[in-house]
Amino acid sequence: SVGRTHKTLTPQRKHRKMLKDGTSEVWPESVEEIFVEGLREYWQSPWATFSRGRSRWRNQFLVDYLRKRGIERSKKQVASHIQVLRNMWKGEPEYSLVAGGDELF
Q1: How many alpha carbons fall within 13 Å on the CB side of residue 6?
Q2: What is the per-residue pLDDT across 54-68, written as a single tens digit (0 to 9) for each?
Q3: Where in this protein does the record put region Disordered (predicted)?
Q4: What pTM, to 2 d.p., does this model score?
Q5: pLDDT at 11 over 60
Q6: Is residue 10 part of a domain?
Q7: How far is CA 48 from CA 43, 55, 80, 97, 102, in A?
Q8: What's the pLDDT tens digit per position in 49-102?
């Protein structure tokens, strides 16, 4: 069978949160892909070593990463999204991207 080659990063999430004004999703798939790219980049950056993966630094890194790409998200939105991904990726290889620093070191 010819499946979709691009595996959805977050297949379980049918319902997505809308922005407060109801316009668009807070984390549509296009933004989610950039978010995950940002996570990967964070772990490859000196920041991860320097901050030992502490979430405060990671969240700020992601806020800045998204902003550079024209996507405005608050630290609180980033933090809660990481929680969602943590729950969703339990037992998946991607879990290491959202694990707390203390779980990895």
Answers
A1: 6
A2: 788 899 999 999 999
A3: 1-21
A4: 0.73
A5: no
A6: no
A7: 5, 10, 19, 11, 12
A8: 877 767 888 999 999 999 999 999 999 999 999 998 999 999 999 999 998 766
- Does residue 1 sit within a domain? no
**What is the span of the domain harbouring residue 87?**
32-104
From the centroid of its chain, how far is CA 90?
A: 14
Amino acid at 64: D
Q: Is residue 88 part of a domain?
A: yes
Q: How far apart are CA 54 and CA 63, in angstroms?
A: 15
Per-residue HEC secondary structure of the chain comes to: CCCCCCCCCCCCCCCCCECCCCCCECCCHHHHHHHHHHHHHHHHCHHHHHCCCCHHHHHHHHHHHHHHCCCCCCHHHHHHHHHHHHHHHCCCCCHHHHCCHHHHC
Residue 21 C-beta-side C-alpha neighbours within 13 Å:
2
Number of domains comprising the chain: 1
